[in-house]
Structure formats: structure tokens, C-alpha cells
Write a sequence for this structure.
């Protein structure tokens, strides 16, 4: 039987960055374009890229109130999304 994989409601499904929603792959491209991440980030896990970049920028990712999504990406959980939400860059449904 072909079923989509189970996804938990508290799972990170996307990221909000500069007033847009991105899938993890496209988020890395946006961060590279903005000079926050290096091109080598394309070959890394999104979480690892975010940890490294946050450390370099002295951003505390554990305190979402300490920074704005215009400065650095914030996670968007699956239960925060509507059926119409899609990635800004690739337009894939989130």
C-alpha cells in the first residue's frame, strides 16, 4: 500500500525567512543568496547549516523571541500550516 509517511504535528515542515515560507532545501539556497551560508551548505543537513550560521551570527535559536525571521530563519511546524501553503521558491506544497 502506498501511504505518505507519518508526520508528527510538532515536526518542522518549513521555515519562515524574510516574510516567506521555504522548504528546507530552498531555505539553504535563500541563505546562500543572502550571504548567510556558504555554497558548501548545499551538501549539508538543514539543521547543521542553521546551527553553524546561528553560531556565527550569535543567534540563540532556542529563544525564538531573541531574533526576527527577517534576520534569520525560524521553524514552521506542520500543524501551523494550511493546505494551501507552499514553498516560495519551488512552489512545492508544504
Amino acid at each position: 500500500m502506498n501511504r505518505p509517511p507519518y508526520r508528527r504535528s510538532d515536526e518542522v515542515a518549513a521555515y519562515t525567512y524574510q516574510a516567506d515560507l521555504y522548504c528546507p532545501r530552498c531555505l539553504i539556497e535563500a541563505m546562500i543568496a543572502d550571504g548567510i551560508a556558504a555554497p558548501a551548505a548545499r551538501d549539508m543537513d538543514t539543521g547543521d547549516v542553521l546551527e553553524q550560521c546561528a553560531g556565527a551570527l550569535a543567534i540563540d535559536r532556542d529563544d525564538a523571541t531573541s531574533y526576527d525571521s527577517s534576520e534569520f530563519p525560524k521553524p514552521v511546524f506542520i500543524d501551523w500550516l494550511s493546505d494551501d501553503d507552499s514553498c516560495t521558491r519551488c512552489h512545492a506544497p508544504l
About this structure: Strands lie at 12-17, 20-22, 74-77. Residues 12-80 form one domain. The mean pLDDT is 91. The chain is about 20% helix and 15% strand.
